[in-house]
Amino acid sequence: MFDALNRRTFACAFAAATLAATWATGAFAQATEVKIAYALARDSHYGAAADGWDKYVTETSQGKFKFTHFPSSAQGGEREVIEGLQLGTGVQAVVVSSGALSNFVPEIGVTDIPFLFRDLTHARAVLDGPIGEGILEKFRDRELIALAWGEQGFRHITNNRQPIEKPEDLAGLKIRTMENPVHIAAFKTAGAAPTPMSWPEVIPALQQGAIDGQENPLSVIVSAKLWEVQKYLTVSGHVYSPAMLIVAPSFWESLSEDEQKIFADGALKGKEAMRAFVDASEKNGVEKAKASGMQVNVLSDEQKAAFQKSIQSAYDGYYKTYTKELVDQIIATK
Ligand code: PAF
């Protein structure tokens, strides 16, 4: 009897040790695959967010989840990957820009209003506060689980025609915008010829001369080496450009409460990594663009004010859609 007890004790200890070793090495026989898609390369701010999220979830779940990355629009444009999330037919997770999201959750469009945010500190305070939280909540009504705000930085104009110094320089400029009604209205009002298209089409369109320019933050300009296809960079900072870390509702519902918490906390790690990357890009992006051959002009506060004045009538439309009260609340946020 003593022997039988010993054998059972040994068998239990062996099973526990094997399980512990499996958890420790993360060698789950059947790790659940999490496909994650984003528009830029793995070494961009998008990759930083996805890696931060991946690392936290993989470590905290002890290997129960395994991320497979699809960078550089490998799963299609942002609109397509968002549709796939909603339908549960695509990847399980994405990091996407606010630009494409306005077509799914119109409330996010308020964050795209030009010259709304003073600086990154202001933008982060709004998004991390009740206004940002309220917008995240709206995603649930549209079959999307938005777990955290990401970030890209302030958007600037690049083109092949001339330096943009005053609103008149935009006249007739064929500028690619995101498929975003707020941006399209602003550039139309300023006298440009906005040409909305999805990101994977942009570099070929610039190469072929189908468009003169585009606008994106330094994080994107540097990651995508836009100097290979663009001569002039105007540091206009006309729009703050948030991004989001989102999962598919079908995937979310398949998780236990503890696992949902791991994914939500991991998304916050992704957000921090993305913001740290953007901070670095904002510091060294202009120098990098210059060193790579771009001709750079930085708009002064007076010049920016002239651009803002030139799109004044677009604000009437923004107030109608998002309410002046909300815009004022954002401006008043410290
Ligand atoms: O311009 C865009 O479409 C976005 O900023 C990009 C480059 C896809 C990153 O989200």
Automatic annotation (TrEMBL):
The lineage of its organism: Bacteria, Pseudomonadati, Pseudomonadota, Alphaproteobacteria, Hyphomicrobiales. One of its GO terms (biological process) is transmembrane transport. PANTHER family: DICARBOXYLATE-BINDING PERIPLASMIC PROTEIN, PTHR33376. Keywords: Receptor, Signal. One of its GO terms (cellular component) is outer membrane-bounded periplasmic space. This is Tripartite ATP-independent transporter DctP family solute receptor. GO terms for molecular function: carbohydrate binding. Gene3D superfamilies: Bacterial extracellular solute-binding protein, family 7 (3.40.190.170). It holds the Pfam family DctP. Residues 1-29 form the signal peptide.
